[in-house]
Amino acid sequence: MILILFYMENLKTFILESIENTNIIPNEDESEYNKKTIGKGKLFEGARSRLVKKGIISKEESEILKELIDYRNDIGHRIYMLTFDVGAYSSLGIKPRYDYTAAKKARILRRKIMNEMGKHFILTLSFDSLAFESAENSYTKEIERLKKKINKGIEALNIEATEINRQINSIPKSVIDKLQPGHPKNHKGNGTLSPQGFECVFTLFELQVRPLTVSYIMRCSYRTAISWYKKWKESKKHDSLVGVK
Fold first, then answer.
1. Which candidate in 110, 176, 214, 228 could, as Cys together with 11 as Cys, close a disulfide (CB 3.0–4.6 Å)?
2. For residues 169 and 26, what is the distance between their CA atoms, to the nearest angstrom?
3. What is the rounded average pLDDT of the residues 103-124?
């Protein structure tokens, strides 16, 4: 979000100041631009129109530019719209607008516009980019590091999900129909397993179903499934000792 804030604020200032500096030179076309935009208080809309007219960006890119500016405004003034779904209040009814591609789109479009405007306008240069360069490099590297970590986690979860589905499909339908693992009778009012739930869990363990799969089928936490798996193993050990005696 910090990258987007910088890219779009820097680009917007660059566009407006470059056009303004170019307008200092008497030009009929530029004067007409001033009458249509500044007088109506729609300076940046007029600037986008100028960029399209000069062939610097396409109409589609002009719309993307507008969307990115609006997105920058959400970050600056309505950041809760992009972050509310991270916590415990994801059901507030606010539609999350976080765009994971926005920073990349902003960076590419900013570079293109800055390069192309030099062919038609007197450019305004500043030290802003130099001042932000170190932070930009740090943020970019950190994003790439996190992206690799997240992708690795997604791969592990996909493997895990495949194994869970395999185990679920291996359970005979007759067993599922008999146990009815999703039935409310398997849980007490406080959410813990009922005697019927114990029987269901133990039967699943007898079928060599892993605790993670059991937690998914029984709609209980993995920690709870692990706890009952240990109890099941203890009961098997106890039954074995009784058999020896």
1. 110
2. 77
3. 92
How many residues appear in the chain? 245
- DSSP structure string for 104-123: HHHHHHHHHHHHHHTTTS--
Q: Are 97 and 82 in contact (CB under 8 A)?
A: yes
Show Cβ contacts of residue 71 under 8 Å, excluding neighbours closer than 6 positions: 4, 8, 97, 99, 102
Identify the top-confidence range among 17-26, 49-58, 89-98: 49-58
Boundaries of every domain in the chain = 2-126, 128-169, 171-244
| Nearest-angstrom CA–CA distance, 5 and 74 | 10
Return d(Cα 98, Cα 25) in angstroms, integer: 42
Give me the helix-helix angle, 102-117 and 2-23, nearest 10°.
20
pTM for this entry:
0.66
The H helix count followed by the E strand count for the chain is 11, 0
The pair of structure tokens assigned to 168 is: 């679920």
